[in-house]
Amino acid sequence: MESRHDLLDRRAARSILWILAIAPALAILVFYAGVLHARMILGYWPTNGHPDPKAIKTVLFALHYSTIAVSAVLTSLTPIAWIAALPMAEMSASLKSFCARMCVYLVSLVILLTLARIDPGGFVGWFMD
Q1: Host domain of residue 61
Q2: Which residues contact 109 (CB under 8 A, 6 or more apart)?
Q3: Greatest mean pLDDT among 13-17, 40-44, 83-87
Q4: What confidence tens digit (pLDDT) does each residue in 82-128 have?
Q5: Is-cis flag, bond preceding 46, omega within 30?
Q6: Number of folded domains in the chain?
Q7: Alpha carbon of 18 to those of 5, 55, 70: distances in Å?
Q8: CA gap 82, 115 in Å, rounded
Q9: The whole model's pTM is what?
Q10: What are residue 50's DSSP bridge partners?
Q11: Can you list the alpha helix ranges (DSSP code H) found in 43-94?
Q12: Residue 97 contacts by C-beta under 8 Å, 6 or more apart in sequence?
């Protein structure tokens, strides 16, 4: 019979793996929410160099801007986190569920990288400017 500690360890492992799996999707959501936030403040869609995101001087947008930057950094570290999480695969319910999480991660990562590469609307260029 499993102890309560083992169940908590298994639940924590599943939670960590799901957070890793959806990290790129969350980064996309946070980024485009920031673009929408800028749109609401400015009254027009931001474009490359107009205005500089750091020039938008509201407390909430500064928080949003920081959140976007942190999510970009953390998402870039997720491949390392996946490698570190490989031992959790055996704690996970099954290898099949681990692979499902990995597929969700890879699909959302490909979408993130594709959006960053094609940059519809020029918003990545605006943010990075």
Answers
A1: 4-128
A2: 24, 78
A3: 40-44
A4: 888 877 766 666 777 888 888 999 999 999 999 999 998 899 989 88
A5: no
A6: 1
A7: 20, 35, 19
A8: 22
A9: 0.84
A10: 47
A11: 59-76, 78-85
A12: 14
